[in-house]
């Protein structure tokens, strides 16, 4: 869904009025075994739910690692960014984030 992505100061965001869920798939040049992945969320453009998937090779089925439910950030008055760290500890060449509708704020 490349047409629905916009770049914004070195980051990306989904286009206005896009359909959900949105998927972001990363293909790494070499298989890696990382210990963690850190996600930083915008102050008010925050998905309500993100599922994480990995796979080691293209022919393999996606393996669901779990999900994250970021805060809607209303406690900070939508002024602070939220950071979440996910512990992977699995070798992978592909990482997929499936993001649901954003929080209403």
Give descriptors for this structure.
105 residues; mainly beta; Jelly Rolls; four-stranded antiparallel sheet; two-stranded antiparallel ribbon; 8 strands; globular; disordered N terminus
What does this protein structure show overall?
The protein is mainly beta and 105 residues long. The protein has a single domain, classed as Sandwich (Jelly Rolls), CATH 2.60.120. The protein is built from no helices and eight strands. It has strands at residues 5-8, 11-14, 22-33, 36-41, 50-55, 63-68, 82-87, 91-99. The strands form three sheets. A four-stranded antiparallel β-sheet has the order 3-8-5-6, with no helix packed on it. The chain has a two-stranded antiparallel sheet with strand order 1-2. The protein is globular, with a radius of gyration of 15 Å. 8% of the residues are buried.
Q: Can you summarize this structure?
A:
It is built from no helices and 8 strands. It has strands spanning 5-8, 11-14, 22-33, 36-41, 50-55, 63-68, 82-87, 91-99.
Annotate the secondary structure layout.
Blueprint: E1 5-8, E2 11-14, E3 22-33, E4 36-41, E5 50-55, E6 63-68, E7 82-87, E8 91-99
Antiparallel strand pairs: 1-2, 3-8, 4-7, 5-6, 5-8
